[in-house]
Automatic annotation (TrEMBL):
PROSITE patterns: CYTB_CTER, CYTC. It is a multi-pass membrane protein. InterPro entries: Cyt_b/b6_C, Cyt_b/b6_C_sf, Cyt_c-like_dom, Cyt_c-like_dom_sf, Cytb/b6-like_sf, Cytochrome_c550/c551-like, MenaQ_cyt_c_Rdtase_cyt_b/c-su. It comes from Robertmurraya siralis. Pfam families: Cytochrom_B_C, Cytochrome_CBB3. Residues 28-155 form the Cytochrome b/b6 C-terminal region profile domain. Residues 179-254 form the Cytochrome c domain. Heme c binds at C193, C196, H197. This is Menaquinol:cytochrome c reductase cytochrome c subunit. GO terms for cellular component: membrane.
Amino acid sequence: MHRGKGMKFVGDSRVPASGRKPNIPKDYSEYPGKTEAFWPNFLLKEWLIGAVFLVGFLCLTAAHQPPLEKIADPSDTAYIPLPDWYFLFLYQLLKYSFASGPYNIIGVLVIPGLAFGALLLAPFLDRGPERRPSKRPLATGFMLLAVAGITYLTWESVAHHDWEAAKLQGQIVAEAEIDTESDGYKIFEANGCVTCHGGDLQGGAGSPPLIDTGLTPEEVAEIAKNGQGAMPAGLFQGTDEELQILAEFISTLESE
């Protein structure tokens, strides 16, 4: 007869089992990839790193003057807007023919939607336990493609932006009290001068301000008629009398 053959074992709940271990969860070090406890070890380190970066950011903010521009002028149609650095890649995308004009919906919704949708789906498409990027090609590929695309578009936006014109159009200049009901200002508006120099005559898009020019009426009339620098000749279409009124109006503008 073999040992144990035909034998039955009956357990009795009233008899305590010897050597039973208490129901204690395993130590965190026994789990793969876990090197420390989340609370408080890991979370405390995250808070400390965040505090260091926050203090550094506050020090930079206090040490550097913010690059403020002049007050927005709705009548300045030549103003070239520029978003903050983290939106430059989307700004550059809208410059391409396939994502601008009648195809704006592609640049605004379709392409960004597909890109960010792919990033959101990456963790679900690659659910492997590996932590090394080389062993997670799908998630790594999505991330590298996104970083490369954002970097390239941001660089293109910065490289092709007219920084000199942007500096002039946003430059804060002295304000002057302008009589918008005067004949000189009405002639100024009628000849389209407001398009480049702005309704407050502070300039923009490469055009200089017309306040505190230090020019005589004759010099102003000469420039308005024959142009100067980037300003072509023949823009003024009024009579000689209107030109004289305009020249006197501009030459007398002085900041307060």
